[in-house]
Amino acid sequence: MLQALKQSKDFLQFTLAQPQHFDEVGTFMLGSHTQVEVWDTGVIVFEPVESELKQTSGKDIVLSCAVHGNETAPIELCNGLVKALLEETLIAKQRILFLFGNPPAIINGTRFIDENLNRLFNGAHSVGEGLINPERIRAKKLEFYVDKFFTSENAATHKIHYDLHTAIRGSKHEKFAIYPYRPGRQYSGEQIMFLEACGIDTVLFHHEPTTTFSYFSSLNYQADAFTIELGKVLPMGQNDMTRFIALNEMLTRLISDTPLQLSEFNAKSVNLYQVCRAINKNFDDFEFTFANDVENFTAFPNGYILAKEGGNDIKVEHEIEAVVFPNAKVPIGQRTVLCLKPASTDNIDKAHNS
Ligand SMILES: O=C(O)CCC(=O)N[C@@H](CCC(=O)O)C(=O)O
Ligand SMILES: [Zn+2]
Question: Which positions bind Zn(2+) (predicted)?
């Protein structure tokens, strides 16, 4: 079965041929330099052989895509990197795990099938009704694979996880990253400048624990983990991949341990936002007052009525709040929108450490 992958070098096609699960896990070598391991459908690891690994600066990298099945640009990007690795035009000098999160939802062309996978991490998959649907089962497996990768005897100390997405609506900042809640740990100015070099010039600092994939890696493995939004959702094949040239170049450098040549941290070259609150849905009649085509990062003044539910008005509480990811069509109890204010740079480690 792995023969098909070795021939086509198309991991997406290989994954979608067995979207539910994969019986024949396996390992093969690329030349004498890299071991490839397929752990499950959509799960592939590239590991430089030990002699190569010792010469590196030691980063373990997780790149995930398709946690939401219809977010296709990250899938095309990751598939391109896997292809370059399989074709040996890109040689891994760091251990790297690629995860294609929800293959059945990719086939379906939808965000999810039964339940939003990116609300099921940090054990949420097993809470309440438990492992009742394929997304809950997959979330548990994805946690297991990340754990296996980050706790391997070959694991590096510097752990990185970029969970790649695209957003439902347009945005005043086309590409942006969500920095998960990080109590007691400074934000990494070096990572922010890496993102900036990738063309991701906007970062949101999350204010509370969540059940997202990036928070799972950040919390449990102290990874430099981010949810990264790369533009607007488009059908497979319709993405303008020229918009990801910088990101592809920087990921290629990261994987091949080529100098990243990052600029010193400079707050003026990025837009930094602090999440001040998440507004959750409490009633079925929850609705926003603004139009459906309002872009992410649109700002509203103090007192403005953002939404209504159960006979109550939900108003802007700060001088100004910008909104991101407004979505009224979520189940009761889930986040309908994040509200943002400008962030302070006090808690950012401005040194470059690697
Ligand atoms: O565009 C939208 O409304 C959602 C885009 C998306 O999938 N965003 C992630 C963000 C996760 C995080 O907060 O780290 C999500 O909602 O899962
Ligand atoms: Zn998404």
Answer: 68, 71, 165
* Average pLDDT score, the chain: 95
Q: Tens digit of pLDDT for each residue in 278-296? A: 999 999 999 999 999 999 9
Q: Beta-strand (E) ranges in the chain?
A: 26-30, 34-40, 43-48, 59-65, 95-100, 158-167, 176-179, 187-188, 202-205, 224-232, 271-280, 287-288, 298-301, 305-309, 312-315, 320-324, 335-342, 348-349
pLDDT at 22: 82
Give catalytic residues, as residue numbers: 229
* Protein residues with CB under 6 Å of any ligand 1 atom: 68, 118, 165, 167-169, 178, 212, 214, 227, 325, 327
Fold of 1-256: Aminopeptidase (3.40.630)
The first and second tokens of residue 290, run together, are 């603004």
Point out the ligand 1 atom lying closest to the alpha carbon of residue 215. 14
Q: Establish whether 125 is an annotated binding residue.
A: no
Ligand nearest to the CA of 118: 1
- Distance (angstroms) between ligand 1 centre and the Cα of 54 equals 37
The pair of structure tokens assigned to 328 is: 């009224």
State the pTM of this model. 0.97
**Helical spans, DSSP H, in the chain:** 2-8, 11-16, 50-53, 72-86, 103-108, 134-150, 189-197, 213-221, 245-256
CATH among 3.30.460.80, 2.40.10.340, 2.60.120.620, 2.40.50.630 for 276-344: 2.40.50.630
Nearest to 229 by CA among 206, 257, 250, 200: 200
Q: Where are the domains of the chain?
A: 1-256, 276-344
Ligand 1, atom 6: nearest CA belongs to which residue?
167
CA of 262 to the centre of ligand 2 (A): 27
What is the CA(243)–ligand 2 centre distance, in A?
18
Q: Say if residue 207 carries a ligand binding annotation.
A: no
